[in-house]
Design a protein that fits this description.
Rossmann fold, 9 strands, about 200 residues, 6 helices, alpha/beta, binds S-adenosylmethionine, 7-stranded mixed sheet
Amino acid sequence: MLHSPACERNQQPILELLCQWLPPAARVLEIGSGSGQHAIFFARTLAGLQWQPSDRRETLKDLAERIAMEGRVGLAPAARVDDPLELDVDQTDHWPEQRFNAVFSANSCHIMAAGSVENLIAGAACVLGSGGLLLLYGPFQDGGVHTSASNAAFDAHLRSLNPSMGVRDAQEIGRWAQAHGLRAKADQPMPTHNRTLIFQRD
Ligand SMILES: C[S@@+](CC[C@H](N)C(=O)[O-])C[C@H]1O[C@@H](n2cnc3c(N)ncnc32)[C@H](O)[C@@H]1O
């Protein structure tokens, strides 16, 4: 099974943030679920949570394995983790018809090409109900400036692997969100120079 040490480090601070922002019994679509650890961890704590994990086809088998093994027992009362969806943000026909209270994605914006991040935002705006939230966790630049030396080094490393990857700019993300009808609500600092950018559908 896929395993992410980063998820183990960031899951508790992200959980605390979700407790603060999600409505009770929220229905959440996760983009780029990866190992599925976040889905399981949050659904073990948040009563009534309905979590829809998703990822691209190449990751789906491993993700589905974890959800099948860990997502059916030991969850908080009335919490549910659905079978993962195949969802590539660049494929308009992959986005579900249902409406969600929130779209969440962790550490995916710097892996996706910039155009895919805009597609993520556009897709999220379509599946969010009125007042729904988009929450993007990860490292972000500010107006082209890195917020730490470690983020700058990480960005250089990503770009050396693949020039289309890289730590995204929070201000640019804010402009894309606004263009798709999402209003900036918060920019929450998280441990180790990460942030969660939160937007709301009007
Ligand atoms: C660094 S991993 C993060 C996984 C998980 N969210 C976490 O926090 O451990 C980045 C994820 O983004 C996904 N991803 C990359 N490009 C994508 C795309 N175009 N559409 C959907 N997911 C994508 C990858 O498959 C991968 O699961």
